[in-house]
Amino acid sequence: MGKGGRASWSGSLAFVIAAAASAIGLGNLWRFPYLAAQYGGGMFIAIYLVLVATLGFALMTTEIAIGRKTSQSQLTAYSRLKSGWGFIGIIGTIIPILIVPYYCVIGGWVLYYLKAYTHMAFTGVNIMGEAAADSGQVFSSFISAPFAPFGYGMVFILGCAAVIVMGVKNGIEKSNMVMMPILFIMAIAISLYVLFLPGSAEGVRYYLVPNLDCVSTPDGKFSIVLLCKTILGAMGQMFYSLSLAMGIMVTYGSYTSKSDSIEKCVRRIEIFDTLIALIAGLMIIPVVYMFAVKTGTDVKQAMCAGPGLMFITLPKVFATLGTAGAWVGMGFFLLVVFAAATSAISLMEACVASVCDIMAIDRKPATFFTTAIIMFLATFSALGYGAWKHVKLYIFDTVNGQQFLDFFDFLSNSVLMPVVAVATCVFVGWVLGPKAIIDECESNGVTMKSKGIYSLMVKYIAPALMVMLLVSEICRALGIGGWSI
Length: 485
Ligand code: PHE
Hints:
- The chain is mostly helical.
- The protein has 19 helices and no strands.
- The chain has helices at 12-23, 26-38, 42-70, 74-81, 86-123, 135-143, 148-165, 168-195, 200-208, 224-241, 248-253, 262-295, 299-303, 307-319, 324-359, 363-383, 404-432, 434-441, 451-478.
- Helix 3 (42-70) runs antiparallel to helix 12 (262-295).
- The longest helix has 38 residues, at 86-123.
- The radius of gyration is 22 Å and the shape is globular.
- The two termini are 41 Å apart.
- The model has no long low-confidence stretch (mean pLDDT 88).
- Residues 22-23, 25-28, 99, 240-241, 243, 246, 248, 343, 346-347 line the site of phenylalanine.
C-alpha cells in the first residue's frame, strides 16, 4: 500500500475485532430494533439469522478473499483479478465516499447528545425539559442550527482521521481494543438494567415472540407479498449491518495473512455483529414498549419513528427512569458514539486505502487529502436540515425532493450497494468461478466446510435476491406498489 509496503493486522483476532467494529454501528443499535419491532419480532429475527448465516456468509467471504488474494483495496482489486471488471471497484469506491460524510454528521449528532447527557448526569440540569417534553424541540433546533451540526460533525471526522493517520496497527487496532470492550460491557450492562425493570417482560415478549401480523392482511389472511417485504427488509438490514458491498471487507481482507482461516473469521464477525443487534433490541424495545403503554401511544408508531426513535423517543424514555435516566442516557450515547466511530473509521479507511493504491502515496498525505474531501461533502449533509434546508434534490423523489443526507443515504444504500453486490456475484459466480474464492479460503491448508453452500449462494441465490432487493428499493423510492418501510 502506498510507498511503504502493505499494512497488516497483528493477527486474526485483531482482524475479527476490526471487521466486527466496522459492522457494529448505528445499524445495529438503532435500525435493527425498529425493524424487528415493525416486522413481527421473533419472525424478523429468525429470517435475519438465516440470511446472515447463508447470504451474508457468502458475500462477506467473497469480499475478504478478494482483498487477500489481490492485496489491493477494492478500487484496484477487481481489475487485478480480470481486466474489464474494474468498474465494480470504481462504483464500490464511490459508496464509502458518499456514506462517510453523512455518517459522520449523524456521529456529530450523537456526540452532541453524549455531551448533553454527560452534563445532565453531573449537574442535574436537563436541557430536554420536564419529562423530556421538549426532546423533539431540542432535536429539531439542534439539527437546524446554523453552526452546531457542522461543528460536531467536523469534530467527529477529525477524531476518526486522527486514528486513521496512525495506521492499521497503531491507529485502527489500538482504538478498537479500547472502544469495543467498553461498547460490549455498556450494552450488556444497559440491557441487564432494562431486563430488571419492573414490567419489562411484556416488552421482551413483544420483541422476541414471532408475530404473524406483519405477514397477514388486515382480514387475517397470509400474504406472500408481505412476507417478501419482511425478507427484503431483513436483507437490506443485513447488508448494511455487515458493512457489505462497500469495499470495507475487501480492504480489511487485504491486510490479513494467508494463514488465517477466512471462514472462521467470517463466522466470528457475524456472531459479534448479530449479538450486538440482538442486545440492542433488548435495550431499546422493552423500554419503548413500556413507555408507549404508559403514555397510551401506539407501540409500532413509537418504535418506527426513524431517527426520532434515538433522538426524541429515547430521551423521553430515559426521563421516566428518574435520576438514573441521565446516567443510562450517558452510557447509551457513549456506546453509540463508539459504535459510530469504529464504523466511520472503517469507511474512511476504505477511502484512504483506495487513494494510497491508486496514487501510490503514503498514508499521511492520503489521509489529509481524503479528510478534506469528506469535510467538504459533510458540509452539505450538516447544513441540509438548517441553513440549506431550502435546497432539495429532485432526482429520485420527484415530488417532494430530498434533503442532502437522505439523498446520499438512498443513492448509496438502495441503489449502488445492491448494484455492486449483484455485479460481484455475477463476476465471482460466473466469470472468475467460485473455485477461485474457495481456493483462497483454503490457502491455509484447511478445507472450507461450507463450500457447497457458498457456491450455490454466489452463483444462483445471492444474485437473484440482490436483484429483487434492488428492484424493491427503486419501487419504494418511486412510490410504486405501496412499498414503504
Ligand atoms: N455496518 C454499520 C452499521 O451497522 C454501518 C456501516 C455502514 C458501517 C457503512 C460502515 C459502512 O451501522
